[in-house]
């Protein structure tokens, strides 16, 4: 490629002189502050979709963990999910006050903190079901790999918005973004958490592809990915290889490694057109469905509300993703655009992988359904991402 034909600067670019350790910028609160006269600029549709998805998720968690002898419905997992959503709203509201370019300043430091937390998991992480993925902080289990998704897209958005040369980029120019993605991915693979590691690679790939890469780079990366997958097969844990083999032929071991997928398919099919009704799912109530309030919550929902309810849920996620992409296109600068694109990619891949996994279209990996599955760290991360989206939309006008 003839680099002499490239222009030196890109439009709507963050000032490259802004340093991560520069003095506190005064304009983060004064530039387009919250104004009651500008309430029409707020994205009420995205906020409304968020509340609907969370409400449906809490109802499904309640039904998936229903115990008629427990008394109040605000007990167990349902109560904890409500508490985490409340905490997430407080954190998200506080984040919305600041201009989102504040995150530009903090992107690299947050990326560093994310790496430190992942290293801390290796040293002092708590183990659950054969994997070491959590840190116990004050009696609360936190999963650093969830925050790693946010820190990676922040670092990528800052780096790509700060490039002096416009796209398309060749492989040499993508060396730093590849390193940004590789470091947390390797640490997450060691936990082991193949699902989240794959998710970070897919999300980062979307951001880099949107930024623009040469055709030769696409071919090189594709060949490298296939080679890595072939070689990496021999480094997978036995249960990870078994999950992939079960995906190819789930009927081979229906009472062993194929049990999760088999029961999930039965639950989804049992819902038929209109579902069995709230609290009437037999796969769910008789506990045939494993992890029915976390990774396999979609199957519990589909059994109760059927094909029609499933279509409504998918339509809600589609509308949410459509709004996220609109926000990315309307962003006032390249940093906001890359950031919103990364957030849209996170939700897209999590929804696609989770539903594909539960439906038997993808191998079983530990990817929750965003805003729906039980999990405090997942809920907090999702609401923070949505708060950033609302922030970018509210301050989209120069």
Note the main attributes of this structure.
61% helix, disordered N terminus, 3 strands, 398 residues, 14 helices, globular, mainly alpha, three-stranded antiparallel β-sheet
What does this molecule look like?
This protein has 14 helices and 3 strands. The chain is mostly helical and 398 residues long. It has one domain. It has a 3-stranded antiparallel β-sheet, with helices on one face. A hairpin with a 2-residue loop joins strand 1 and strand 2. 41% of the residues are buried. Residues 1-12 and 14-26 have low confidence and may be disordered.
* Mean pLDDT reading: 81
Tell me the total number of β-strands. Answer: 3
Radius of gyration: 22 Å
Strand content: under 5%
Oligomeric status: single chain
Largest sheet properties: 3 strands, antiparallel
Count of alpha/pi helices: 14
Structural class: mainly alpha
Measured distance between first and last alpha carbons: 34 Å
Low-confidence parts: 1-12, 14-26
Shape: globular
Element-level helix/strand string: HHHHEEEHHHHHHHHHH
Number of domains: 1
Spatial sequence of strands, sheet with the most strands: 1-2-3
Helix percentage range: 55-70%
Task: Indicate the topology.
Blueprint: H1 27-30, H2 44-64, H3 76-97, H4 102-124, E1 126-128, E2 131-137, E3 140-142, H5 144-161, H6 175-189, H7 194-211, H8 215-232, H9 238-248, H10 259-270, H11 282-285, H12 297-330, H13 334-358, H14 376-394
Antiparallel strand pairs: 1-2, 2-3
Helix pairs in contact: 2-3, 2-12, 3-14, 4-5, 4-6, 5-6, 5-7, 5-13, 5-14, 6-7, 7-13, 10-12, 12-13, 12-14, 13-14
